[in-house]
Amino acid sequence: MTTPRPSMLPAAVTYADQGWPVFVLGRTKRPVANCEPCAQAGPDHDREACPCLTCHSFYAATTDRNRIVAMLAAVPDGLLAIRTGTAAGLAVIDIDPRNGGTLDRSLMTPTAAVATGGGGWHLYYRHPGHPVLSRPLTGAPGIDIKADGGLVVAPPSLHPTTGRPYQWAGTRPVAEMPPALIAAVAADPPMTKPAPPRSCTPARVSSRAGEAGGISNPAALLAAHLAAVARAPEGRRRTTLYGAARGIARMVAAGHLTTTEAWAALTDAGHTADQTDRDINAAITGGFHAEGVPT
Ligand SMILES: [Zn+2]
Ligand SMILES: [Zn+2]
Fold first, then answer.
1. Which ligand is in closest contact with the Cα of 49?
2. Most exposed: 99, 160, 222, 273, by fewest CB within 10 Å?
């Protein structure tokens, strides 16, 4: 009843040889569980420098052939994935038609492309050099950018729900991002309305510093939200991230940080807590919507 699995090694080596760091995800696209010491480690643990073979999702990505062989052996039913962003020199546009994503030819010029096993498309572009956050493309439902702080599942992995392989579509090389697309991925989401008048009520401000409506120290409040995510025990991480997203959405609404800064902070916190990009995006989008703050 099991589908014969394609060998990941030749593809993994091909990617690594062109400078794309690779790693493995679990069969269901979730990060491989961290080892006990890494699972217990606090937010000060340096995930980038951690020597573990498969801990911390894309932080384990490597171009070292021996490590790749060992990684694939350690997670024999895992999915092959590529760390995107400056680490690979890649920015990937992820089009998910199930969520309304469509190919916009005015933005998305021809380039190397993967047909995901789930009916979507990954368009591989050269990273433009300046930071490009991994997040949904503003104003384009069903389209995500996978760049800094991101990852893509790569061919010949089998899609976890359909069982169909991710496949390269054609043989185009990875192209430069066209200027219109660079502008689109850099665009800040529309600013939210200014702080509601209740924040001017002196009684609230003085009585409950740190609460929404009277944020006396935004930096400390933001740090507290992010620390809660980092400290959350396994099993509580998704709901904690959602709660932090709601709290930070209120800070965005009050004008203490931009939507882009909120996405970056929450995405990084989610990765610290070993959440998938999909779960992170869902938590942020859900938290912002619950607070009536546009993403
Ligand atoms: Zn570890
Ligand atoms: Zn570690």
1. 2
2. 99
